[in-house]
Amino acid sequence: MKKTITVFKGDGIGPEITDAVLAILQAAQAPLAYEVYSVGIPLYEQCGELISEEAFASFERNKVLLKSPITTPIGSGFRSINVLLRKKYDLYANVRPAKSNPAIATPFPDVDIVTFRENTEDLYVGVEEQIDADTVHATKIITRKASERIIEAAFRYAADNQRKRVTCVHKANILKMSDGLFLSIFHDIAKRYPTIESDDRIVDNMCMQLVQYPQRYDVLVMPNLYGDILSDLTSGLIGGLGLMPSANLGSEYAMFEAVHGSAPDIAGKHIANPTALLWSACMMLDHLGEQTVAARIRKAVDQVLADKKALTPDLGGSATTQQYTQAVIEAL
Ligand code: NAD
């Protein structure tokens, strides 16, 4: 039976890469039906909303969202639509896999690191207070509930995906109470997964280790701020944000999107690379229990990237989005 998912087409390169991904999903015979919504700047200019009520309602019905990038309007009230979606649907786990690909030359081959970033608290609660003209306080919040669910998610992922090790990243040597709580919960949960190795690193040391020996690391779990920074670091290890997929998971809802933005500089030029959104769609298929289809698509993409004949300009080629998409479909 087909599972219905919601698709937000976004703006900038969003519509181009969404069309490419939907064509590939169709060619791969993914057992999916789609409710597709145009969201983003054109809608905002019409009615002052980036996402319509119907689009939100569709996500609430289907619980699974494939989202392409949305431009943050300059001068608007909210910080980002992503922050809004994460809060509204309690998408507490931000999962970013960083895997080296032979088509992209970097000084770091064989990187295969999955970062689990807590998505709802830490310094991102946005509570800041002006104490006097020269002093500002920011509040860092770490709770047992939020820490348990992200750490549990990381170990569960490791167990389900034949991963060997989970590393907790923290600064508990200085932030003894807040990060200390996160670390102690990590050690408690680790005992429930005796077949998975567990260890921890202080965040500054972790940064050095990741650029010296990234191959030594497997699954990482950490509070929000360290996750924000380290997941960009790991994407740099594999050649940049352009190839990074992500999942934002909650207990009820799941949203899958590329890490990159709407790339207004190349929008409409038909040269956008849809790979990060496509890999996000593969994470979505895994989430829906369609691992076989996801594996077929990943294999086809690997083949096209390795062939180097149909690469988009960001990867040093001259193919259009359409030519790249066609090459993946042929490889399938
Ligand atoms: P960006 O990621 O859109 O672009 C940075 C650079 O990478 C640009 O040169 C762009 O051409 C290139 N690039 C990005 N994706 C590419 C792709 N798939 N193929 C080829 N080249 C690609 O970052 P930005 O310019 O800082 O942001 C543009 C807008 O996107 C902003 O309004 C920002 O707020 C928004 N944004 C949205 C999301 C999201 O919806 N998830 C994430 C990040 C940024």
Automatic annotation (TrEMBL):
InterPro entries: IsoCit/isopropylmalate_DH_CS, IsoPropMal-DH-like_dom. Residues 4-328 form the Isopropylmalate dehydrogenase-like domain. Keywords: Oxidoreductase. SMART domains: Iso_dh (SM01329). Pfam families: Iso_dh. Belongs to the isocitrate and isopropylmalate dehydrogenases family. This is Isocitrate/isopropylmalate dehydrogenase family protein. It comes from Amedibacillus dolichus.
